[in-house]
């Protein structure tokens, strides 16, 4: 428990730092009178980021056992960007001849080689990742805490695509710096060239692993939609199941390979950074160090998104039932998966079943309902006295399994004329 509290306090400290930095940057930007569209977009992004960070602090404080240590570096980078961009803005405004309240040189403002739109996109990636981590944690704590699952799925996919683009941008900048170092290093140029080639090769291998893993996900999803048949005695020995198991083993192996490649990439970049310090300018070394941290943070963000995606696919059953007329709907979980969905039926005798049951209970309930409603009676039609009622032989068994129950009064369908009343002369 002490370890959990320590982890939680670390996350709270980093989240608080990022939150305060984002709020401070928001107030600084808002204090200027001139707000072109790109600045208004930044303000909107900062406001949304602050709200997500506030939720994160609240979640970790109320659930100290939750482990969100993967967010350590993303939170640190997020806070650093907000703080650094604010400092750069104030320096630039101080050098500007314009009045502080009417600063208009937004288009010229740069931070670490990036303009306002680049900074906003970086913060948007961190915000999306933190939001995904929050939603994934809430889903593990309680399925009821997650609203629209389709929006959540779209958020994960969009974040993964944006992070992929972010990694490509970082990789391109790293390549430019490494090539520059190679040209300036003289006798060390051969070793730097070797390190640069090794970094590029490792990045290509990581991309191959990611593409193959994504392709396996698509195959598994198609197989699940098609449905796998069950073998005898409840065992799952169908060809689809065997194939899925093999695909999952391949996916696990790819994940292990990617983890080794990422570790190797870190080591190569550390060697590249160490070697570049000898013949490069101080600014180039700082840029290379910063890009290395951004690469690491983007990789962790992508890992968070991938884990949330896997958790959603493996541990959550999303069911949307809609029936009309004489409909019988089941929304049940027999394998412990979290249920998220709804039963919606329109008809005078829609029956709906929901919850967590064993396979045996589901099968028995299905048989019972089938027997009871084999010969359905129309509403408003009574059974003659002494006549047998369909399903009457199951009454004792039903009462034993589900209780006494009660008889519903006949109801008149809409737009159906009432039966004529008898009159006496």
UniProtKB/TrEMBL annotation:
Q: Which UniProt keywords apply?
A: Coiled coil
Q: Which Pfam families match?
A: PigL_N
Can the keyword tRNA-binding be found in this entry's annotation? no
UniProt keyword annotation of Coiled coil present: yes
- Stretches of Polar residues bias are at 232-245, 377-386
Renumbered to this chain, region (Disordered) spans 223-245, 377-425
Extent of Pro residues compositional bias: 416-425
Tree of life domain:
Eukaryota
Which parts of the sequence belong to the Azaphilone pigments biosynthesis cluster protein L N-terminal domain?
2-210, 240-305
Coiled-coil intervals: 142-180
Q: What is this protein called?
A: Azaphilone pigments biosynthesis cluster protein L N-terminal domain-containing protein
Task: Look up and give the organism this protein is from.
Answer: Penicillium chermesinum
């Amino acid at each position: 428990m002490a370890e959990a509290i320590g982890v939680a306090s670390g996350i709270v400290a980093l989240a608080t730092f990022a939150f305060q930095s984002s709020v401070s940057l928001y107030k600084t930007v808002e204090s200027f009178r001139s707000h072109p569209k790109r600045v208004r977009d930044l303000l909107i992004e900062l406001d949304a980021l602050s709200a997500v960070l506030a939720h994160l602090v609240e979640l970790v404080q109320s659930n100290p056992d939750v482990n969100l240590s993967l967010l350590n570096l993303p939170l640190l980078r997020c806070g650093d960007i907000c703080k650094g961009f604010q400092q750069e803005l104030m320096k630039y405004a101080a050098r500007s001849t314009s009045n502080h309240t009417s600063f208009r040189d937004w288009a010229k403002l740069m931070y670490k080689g990036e303009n306002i739109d680049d900074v906003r996109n970086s913060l948007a990636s961190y915000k999306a990742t933190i939001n995904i981590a929050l939603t994934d944690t809430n889903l593990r704590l309680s399925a009821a805490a997650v609203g629209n699952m389709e929006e959540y799925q779209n958020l994960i996919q969009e974040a993964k695509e944006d992070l992929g683009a972010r990694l490509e941008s970082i990789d391109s900048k790293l390549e430019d710096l490494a090539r520059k170092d190679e040209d300036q290093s003289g006798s060390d140029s051969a070793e730097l060239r070797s390190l640069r080639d090794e970094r590029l090769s490792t990045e290509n291998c990581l991309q191959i692993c990611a593409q193959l893993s994504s392709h396996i996900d698509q195959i598994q999803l198609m197989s699940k939609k098609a449905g796998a048949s069950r073998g005898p005695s409840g065992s799952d020995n169908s060809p689809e199941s065997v194939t899925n198991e093999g695909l999952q083993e391949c996916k696990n192996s790819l994940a292990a390979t990617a983890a080794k490649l990422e570790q190797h990439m870190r080591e190569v970049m550390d060697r590249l950074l160490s070697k570049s310090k000898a013949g490069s300018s101080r600014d180039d070394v700082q840029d290379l160090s910063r890009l290395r941290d951004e690469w690491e943070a983007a990789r962790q963000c992508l890992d968070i998104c991938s884990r949330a995606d896997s958790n959603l696919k493996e541990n959550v059953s999303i069911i949307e039932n809609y029936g009309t007329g004489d409909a019988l709907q089941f929304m049940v979980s027999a394998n412990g998966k979290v249920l998220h969905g709804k039963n919606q039926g329109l008809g005078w005798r829609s029956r709906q079943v929901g919850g967590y049951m064993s396979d045996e209970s589901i099968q028995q309930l299905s048989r019972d309902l089938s027997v009871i409603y084999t010969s359905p009676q129309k509403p408003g039609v009574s059974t003659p006295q002494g006549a047998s009622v369909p399903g009457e032989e199951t009454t004792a068994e039903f009462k034993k399994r589900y209780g006494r129950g009660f008889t519903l009064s006949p109801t008149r369908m809409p737009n159906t004329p009432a039966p004529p009343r008898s009159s006496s002369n």
